[in-house]
Amino acid sequence: MIEVIGVSKQFKNETAIDYRDMIFENGKSYMLLGASGCGKSTLLNMIAGILSAEQGKILIDGVNMSEKSQREKDRFRIEKIGYIFQDFKLIPDMTVMDNINILRLEGVDTSRAPALLKTLDIYEQRNKKIKHLSGGQKQRVAIVRALVKTPDIILADEPTGNLNFAIGEQVIQQLTSVAKGKTLIAVTHDDRLAKYFDVVVDMNEMTDGGRRDLVDGKEGA
Amino acid sequence: MFRFAIKNMLIKKIQIILIILSIVLSAGVGVLAYNVGEQVSDGISGTAGYYSAIIGPSGSATQLAMNTMYFTDEPLGTIPYTLVTELMQDTRVNEVIPFAMADSYNGSSVVGTTTGFLSSKTVGEGRLFDDHGEFEVVVGWSVAQMNELKVGDQLYTSHAAGDVHTQPLTVVGILEQSHTVYDNVVFTQLQTIWQVHDHGEEEHTEEEHEGEEEHDHSTHGMICAVLVKTKNPGYAMTLVNDYDGKVFSTADGESYSLQAIEPMATVRGVLEDTDNTKYIVFILCAIILLMNIIIISIITLLNMYHSAKEISLMRLIGISMKKINLLYLIQNSLIGLVSTVLAFGVSRVCLLFMGDYVASMGVVLNLATVYPMEWILLVAVFLISVLPTVVCTVLMSGRDGLAD
Q1: CB of B289 within 8 A of CB of B30?
Q2: Chain A residues with CB inside 8 Å of B11's CB?
Q3: How many Å lie between the alpha carbon of B16 and the closest alpha carbon of chain A?
Q4: Quick check: B22 and B295 in contact, CB under 8 A?
Q5: Which residues pair with B126 in a beta bridge?
Q6: Which chain B residues have any C-beta within 8 angstroms of a chain A C-beta?
Q7: pLDDT tens digits, B27-66
Q8: Residue span of the structural domain in which B374 resides
Q9: pTM higher than 0.90
Q10: Residue in B7, B320, B400 closest to A94 by CB
């Protein structure tokens, strides 16, 4: 279970987002909807330990991630979290398999990769360089890389952001299918994909409309 | 980790080839310059210390030393063999070796002398020539290799003018390879030189110069120099003083102006010039190396900077900074290792090609000779190529966290 309690995040551009308390239950899929800048991606990054909150805490199965060191957060991310990035975060000059096997640097077992690639219909492309793949194929590789380590939590930041609706829908179908039984939190703008998720969260409501300005870089009165 | 490092390097192969090329050229030239300088210096001074004094016709002291010890340059002229007889009776003298050089065999000098001249050399096949015999030769290792000579074969020497003598000479021995100038020389008895020459001159005069005014080309009883070993080093100086500038007269009234030199002192003078040149080359190489260190460091740092996207990507998916640094350290170590090995290889290949040129200076380069300083240079090159990664590691470990 992921608990977001009293979390506030400040940015260098002197704005801040205050999150309402939220709970993401284990084994359910969540779709975070909302306008740009309302803090959807920021929330995912804080859960993943990429960003840290200035106030409040994020508990994952009762463990306060805010108190962990960066190294511990990295370790947690590599072991427990599968993160799918909007811009894929793949190394373009490397092959599909190399991009997945990069996780072996941290001792991750990637033996499931071929099976996942087959499930996502990308197995034939396994020895192709990323730069030679289409957007949909790249997103599928990113999904395989996120899922190959059998994570407990899957975070997907705009997984269909670079894809047309038909391919995006297909990717979401496949993602929710392979992530069944895991905690899946996906950020998207497209409410037509809501039917594939257990819970839809309107982040505009959860952040009171998104960012607010800070006075002289500090909290206002 | 290692496999991934290799794959990551293959992605940037052009950039990596350029870095390796840059290191190989600078380090290779540096190592080569040092090696050649040292081998030339060792080769020259090693031979020079063998004789206490050299007596020959007056003229250039350097030419006399280089001709008699390294078989380079032309002899200064001739002096009568009776000088040898006189020196043998000198109580200060331990050994007297006559030296005559007039002919060549397929580009290799032919030296007429006694077996004493080859006392420090080992005969690989056959035997030394008989000092009292005729028409026998002992050939240097390279001469035998180049001309496919074996013991029992016959060869024909030619005069400096290019005329081939008709008198065959028999190979009685082949010297073991010594990596010295002796490898490139044919040695024979003095008598043989005189006989072959006089025989050649007779034919020359009769067949080609009929009617021309006959002039005396006879070298019979003439030598180019005398190499002397004194009983103790102190005698060398007095002997040189006695014979330098002396006019030596023969029984038939011919007079010859002599010079006497201490070969070590003469060669030291030559080496001082060589050493200066060597250090200039060495300093130039050091400057090239330094410039390359800077260039390599900048290239590697820029490479790391451009790899920032790759690094941040790896950080985002959870790869620790420690593993990323290790990855780049492996990559740069491989670059350093390959470059160092290639630099050494390039220096040896260049040494091979320089062999003929340096042999003409009287020194045979040995490819297997590696000086401790060369290892130090190569280790330094390896460390320098890894250094930028260490710098980056230190810089990046200071900001281990992911930026907000």
Answers
A1: yes
A2: 91, 93-94
A3: 15
A4: yes
A5: B173
A6: 1, 4, 7-8, 11, 310, 313-320, 323, 327, 400-402, 404
A7: 888 888 888 878 877 777 766 777 889 999 999 998 898 8
A8: 2-44+270-397
A9: no
A10: B7
User: What are B188-216's pLDDT values in tens digits?
Assistant: 998 888 888 766 555 554 444 444 444 34
From residue B131, give the alpha-carbon distance in Å to each of B68, B97, B109, B135, B330. 19, 12, 19, 11, 65
Give the C-alpha separation, B68 to B17, whole Å: 49
Which residue bears the tokens 């997984």?
A: A159
Name which of B11, B318, B327 is nearest A78 (Cβ-Cβ). Answer: B318
The verdict on domain A2-213 having CATH code 3.40.50.300 is yes
Residues B282, B355, single domain; the answer is yes
**Which ipTM score applies to this complex?**
0.77
- Asked, for residue B403, whether it belongs to a domain, the answer is no
Please give, rounded to a whole number of angstroms, the shortest distance from the CA of A23 to a CA of chain B: 24
Residue A185's beta-bridge partner residues? Answer: A30, A155
Do B113 and B87 share a domain, yes or no?
A: yes
Residue of chain A nearest B319, judged by CA positions: A106
Gap from B20 CA to chain A (nearest CA, Å): 21
First and final CA of chain A: distance in angstroms?
A: 34
- A153 min Cα distance to partner chain B (Å): 14
Same domain, B68 and B183: yes
Low-confidence ranges of chain B (pLDDT < 50): 205-218, 399-404
